[in-house]
Q: What sequence folds into this?
């Protein structure tokens, strides 16, 4: 196995496992880079590494970017077999009300109109149709009120700590009339840029089929099956092949989602994602100045990421770590166990930062004794610790969920059975006489000195 020639520190930092707090200070390398948005973030979709952030923990109205949570919950229900893409949904009074609501995006659902889940999902993901969104929410949960509870529960589950949902669409509550059920008329949904990125990462990771819908530039109207009487023109102007003339200057190679948003209070928002040469980035901008500016600022973010960051593999799965090829084991038939990495340690890093990383080894708290030593029994493949990247430079990017850095499991390479009482007694006797002999030798040396 290859060995890593890195400076390595071993420590038994039990209280820090999984609870390290992110610095939250913009990186020095970002000092000459900024975007014209009240809040923004850029992350690596694979690892959650943050490449840029600005006011990323401030909760703001996300407008129709809220629909990413609705998209997630619908796809989750589909994956669990609650219904299929072909399931027919009947438009309710509420869905019909939104279908007739002037000044909003809708597909004019008639009361009692029947549409398939796939048709409604297309209308929601492509055209941000509010009536289609509510129809799907009611299908999943029986009512939008219960669906909103599910939205908030899923937000907590995903680690979105600065988010609150009051409806499935992102519309201002005041527009919902008699159908408002959660919060007050002046309320809107709220998400921070970080939370929005967490949601987008989960959506793309868990249900990548969402990109099949979010990447559609337009669905033309028609009478044939699957079409609506209104043209479904995607509000995402960065999609290549978008037919709208105003959109063409914003086309971005590799961009295939995710969701725009606008209300008077929210301003112009956009969660984008693009993939180039095996790197998928997720960007969020909130409260930009105009419809065009949300795409201009997104381009700046994505260009910054693709032009300055690349994946670097610090260790491969199966690698051993120099000076830590074996670890001592207490109360085992063997006194030590060989260990190796159970996964590769790979991170998207700034091109100038490669030499600013070391590897810190931390033992797993569940398999050590009070003295901080591994204790038998251990089974081959057991996680006995973690190899954690330690960043020593000035750019503290951190990860989406608040961890300081990435880590990979360190696993036992063979079984270590617990030693029997006879073996432990003999070791104790041997240790005792070894200590006595050492004392005698030291005493003789001192007597003749």
A:
């Amino acid at each position: 196995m290859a060995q890593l020639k890195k400076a390595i520190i071993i420590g038994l930092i039990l209280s820090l496992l999984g609870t390290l707090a992110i610095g939250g200070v913009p990186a020095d390398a970002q000092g000459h880079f900024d975007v014209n948005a009240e809040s923004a973030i850029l992350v690596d979709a694979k690892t959650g590494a943050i490449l840029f952030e600005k006011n990323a923990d401030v909760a703001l109205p996300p407008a129709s970017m809220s629909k990413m949570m609705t998209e997630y919950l619908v796809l989750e229900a589909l994956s669990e077999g609650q219904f299929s893409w072909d399931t027919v949904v009947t438009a309710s009074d509420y869905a019909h009300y939104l279908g007739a609501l002037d000044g909003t995006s809708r597909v004019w659902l008639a009361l009692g109109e029947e549409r398939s889940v796939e048709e409604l999902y297309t209308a929601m993901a492509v055209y941000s149709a509010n009536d289609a969104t509510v129809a799907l929410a009611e299908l999943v949960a029986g009512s939008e009120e219960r669906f909103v509870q599910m939205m908030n529960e899923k937000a907590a589950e995903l680690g979105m700590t600065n988010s609150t949902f009051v409806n499935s669409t992102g519309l201002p509550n005041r527009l919902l009339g008699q159908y408002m059920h959660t919060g007050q008329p002046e309320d809107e949904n709220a998400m921070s840029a970080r939370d929005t990125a967490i949601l987008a990462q989960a959506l793309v990771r868990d249900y990548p089929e969402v990109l099949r819908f979010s990447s559609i530039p337009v669905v033309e109207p028609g009478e044939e099956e699957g079409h609506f009487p209104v043209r479904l023109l995607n509000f995402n102007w960065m999609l290549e092949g978008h037919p709208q003339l105003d959109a063409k200057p914003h086309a971005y190679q590799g961009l295939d989602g995710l969701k725009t948003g606008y209300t008077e209070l929210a301003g112009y928002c956009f969660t984008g994602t693009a993939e180039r040469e095996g790197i998928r980035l997720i960007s969020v901008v909130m409260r930009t100045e105009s419809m065009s500016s949300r795409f201009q600022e997104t381009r700046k973010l994505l260009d910054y990421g693709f032009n300055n960051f690349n994946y670097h593999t610090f260790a491969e799965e199966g690698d051993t770590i120099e000076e830590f090829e074996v670890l001592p084991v207490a109360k085992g038939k063997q006194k030590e166990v060989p260990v190796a990495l159970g996964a590769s340690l790979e991170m998207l890093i700034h091109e100038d930062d490669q030499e600013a990383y070391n590897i810190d080894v931390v033992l797993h708290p569940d398999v050590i004794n009070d003295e901080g030593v591994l204790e038998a029994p251990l089974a081959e493949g057991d996680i006995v610790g973690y190899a954690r990247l330690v960043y020593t430079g000035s750019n503290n990017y951190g990860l989406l969920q608040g961890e300081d850095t990435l880590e990979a499991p360190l696993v036992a390479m063979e079984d270590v059975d617990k030693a029997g009482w006879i073996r432990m007694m003999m070791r104790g006797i041997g240790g005792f006489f070894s200590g006595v002999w050492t004392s005698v030798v030291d005493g003789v040396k001192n007597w003749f000195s």
Q: What stands out?
A: The chain has two domains: 3-22+312-412, 37-288. The chain has nine helices and 20 strands. The radius of gyration is 28 Å.
